[in-house]
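Design job #97: recover the sequence.
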């Protein structure tokens, strides 16, 4: 081979490698982001996905009169909007016992908890729930390259304002306890996360913008796992008064999106957090993927009709950008979760933007348009993540939830001769392609717009019991908590869960062993059936599991081993007697059991009961 030919061959190989690298980089830049866990807390008793879906499925609205515990509504209510110091509604969506918290779970002192904005407290618990929902033990993310992206409105400093009339109430915990930048930083600190950590405020688009930033950080390899979402609480009447001055509030506190009776929005509280990974990482880690974020975009209206006025042009632009990044065509979108606050102008301009981007012939399959604000009202900084959770649930249940508070279309919205349908009742979600695809839209009074494209994800077939031959009976269910009181509570939760779950006992025990943290207060019971496990748990609850004791499975002591001695855990795999007696005792006495050695075949994901927080009320001192 001539030198010239060899040089040419080498150059061609280099070009081929460079092309492949460019291809790989482009693929990384557009890799779908997997939602692997979700935590939430909204009014109406919503503290889990099951609670959230029940509200959607029952077509329920969670709006109530403003609780007396917040403030005396009679001092502020006036039916005429714009009255100085007053507001024109008595309603909203409120989380019960908003001041309750379990500081012991995080190792936070009562004094610090009293000084912390309840928004920070709720965020911590929802993040912990999201981790549990993902099946990711808290200890496993310590010192990891994980990021935190939280949406939080700078106008929501109610807890600080409530204390500000007497600065003697301030202490060493007040600053970071109420600073919004510390809300994300505290999560990173307590979990030991070393990736980017930020609090984002773009108004009503805050949480969707935070999720967008999280997706970007994951694709740029700035982090390998991300927590993203938002929180918003209403602890004082201040923003109510401001919104009433602007004529934004609906008198009945309900969002009537796209309806002829739309007369403003209703305010609501909420917190939602999603756990995100690159799809390749999620699959490699064996995570349950709840849905995919295929593409997203954010922009600003620029110089428009006014700072707070929505813009059709701005929303249309952000929708087109998100679609182009997603690789999903507009014809493949069969559901659009709209902002839909119930503002006549805002609804009309948003629908015009949707029509410009997503409309096709009315002979094509339908494209549904709805908004979760009919159920929850406007959760403001957490509104976008509430919409994301609704879409994920709709994909999981293959149902389009009804768009409630809707009777007749607003005269400024044109829907005839289009493919759009506003679902006045729940219906089966028929995919246009092999998967269900949805768009989520959000805009803000700051002029910021955000848009996101989601797709469902079909997991490969689950492992069957026959695939798990290496696990001999009996099964072991280990549970633990930060205190004996909490341990008793979680034991009761597991009894109820076992009585109603269709999951195999193998998968339940597999997830309890490998997908949960193991705290100091411990209990482990053995059995061959769910009935055996329930009986063992009941026996502990009725006789042995007291506040200051453990629940020994036997009067025997492990005896022969010390914690520092190496243990061959595989010996318990095929030794039923030792597994039923000795291993539970070792676990309860604090041994770090290597559960993976007992489950060489793995298992299927099961969403187990969440940690039972032992909440008490924490509030700043009302005295001098």
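Job complete. Output follows.
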């Amino acid at each position: 081979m001539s030198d010239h030919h060899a040089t040419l061959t080498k150059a061609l190989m280099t070009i081929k490698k460079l092309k492949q690298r460019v291809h790989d980089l482009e693929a990384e830049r557009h890799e779908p982001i997997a939602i692997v866990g979700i935590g939430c807390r909204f009014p109406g008793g919503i503290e889990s996905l099951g609670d959230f879906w029940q509200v959607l499925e029952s077509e329920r609205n969670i709006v109530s009169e403003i609780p007396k515990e917040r403030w005396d509504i009679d001092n502020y209510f006036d039916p005429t909007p714009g009255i100085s110091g007053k507001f024109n509604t008595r309603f909203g969506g409120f989380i019960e016992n908003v001041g309750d918290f379990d500081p012991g779970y995080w190792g936070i002192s009562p004094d610090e908890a009293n000084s912390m904005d309840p928004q920070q407290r709720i965020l911590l618990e929802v993040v912990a729930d999201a981790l549990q929902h993902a099946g990711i033990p808290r200890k496993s993310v310590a010192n990891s390259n994980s990021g935190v992206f939280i949406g939080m409105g700078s106008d929501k400093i109610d807890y600080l304002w409530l204390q500000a009339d007497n600065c003697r109430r301030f202490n060493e915990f007040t600053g970071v306890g109420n600073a919004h930048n510390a809300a994300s930083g505290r999560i990173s600190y307590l979990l030991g996360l070393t990736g980017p950590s930020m609090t984002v405020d773009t108004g009503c688009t805050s949480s969707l913008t935070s999720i967008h930033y999280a997706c970007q950080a994951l694709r740029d390899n700035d982090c390998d796992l991300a927590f993203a979402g938002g929180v918003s609480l209403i602890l004082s009447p201040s923003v109510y008064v401001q919104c009433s001055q602007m004529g934004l509030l609906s008198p009945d506190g309900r969002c009537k999106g796209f309806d002829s009776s739309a007369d403003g929005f209703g305010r609501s509280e909420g917190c939602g957090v999603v756990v995100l990974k690159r799809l390749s990482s999620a699959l490699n880690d064996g995570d349950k993927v709840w849905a995919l974020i295929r593409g997203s975009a954010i922009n600003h209206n620029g110089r428009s009709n006014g700072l707070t006025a929505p813009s059709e042009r701005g929303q249309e632009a952000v929708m087109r950008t998100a679609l182009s990044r997603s690789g999903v065509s507009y014809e493949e979108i069969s559901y659009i979760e709209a902002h839909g606050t119930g503002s006549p102008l805002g609804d009309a301009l948003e629908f015009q933007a949707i029509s410009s981007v997503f409309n096709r012939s009315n002979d094509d399959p339908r494209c549904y348009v709805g908004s979760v604000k009919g159920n929850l009202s406007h959760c403001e900084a957490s509104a976008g993540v509430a919409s994301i959770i609704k879409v994920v649930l709709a994909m999981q249940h293959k149902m389009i939830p009804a768009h409630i508070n809707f009777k007749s279309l607003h005269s400024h919205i044109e829907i005839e001769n289009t493919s759009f349908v506003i679902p006045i009742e729940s219906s089966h979600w028929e995919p246009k392609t092999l998967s269900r695809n949805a768009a989520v839209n959000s805009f803000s009074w700051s002029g910021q717009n955000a848009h996101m494209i989601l797709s469902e994800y079909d997991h490969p077939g689950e492992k069957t019991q026959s695939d798990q031959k290496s696990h001999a009976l009996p099964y072991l269910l280990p549970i633990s908590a930060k205190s004996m009181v909490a341990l008793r509570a979680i034991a009761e939760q597991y009894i109820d869960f076992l009585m109603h779950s269709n999951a195999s006992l193998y998968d339940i025990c597999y997830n309890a062993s490998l997908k949960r943290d193991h705290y100091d207060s411990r209990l482990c019971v053995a059995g061959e059936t769910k009935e055996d496990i329930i009986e063992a748990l009941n026996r502990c609850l009725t006789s042995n599991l007291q506040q200051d004791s453990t629940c020994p499975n036997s009067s025997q002591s492990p005896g022969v081993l010390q914690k520092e001695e190496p243990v061959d855990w595989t010996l318990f795999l095929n030794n039923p007697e030792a597994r039923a007696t000795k291993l539970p005792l070792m676990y309860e006495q604090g041994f770090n059991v290597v559960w993976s050695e007992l489950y060489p075949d793995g298992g299927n994901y099961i969403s187990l009961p969440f940690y039972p927080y032992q909440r008490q009320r924490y509030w700043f001192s009302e005295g001098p």
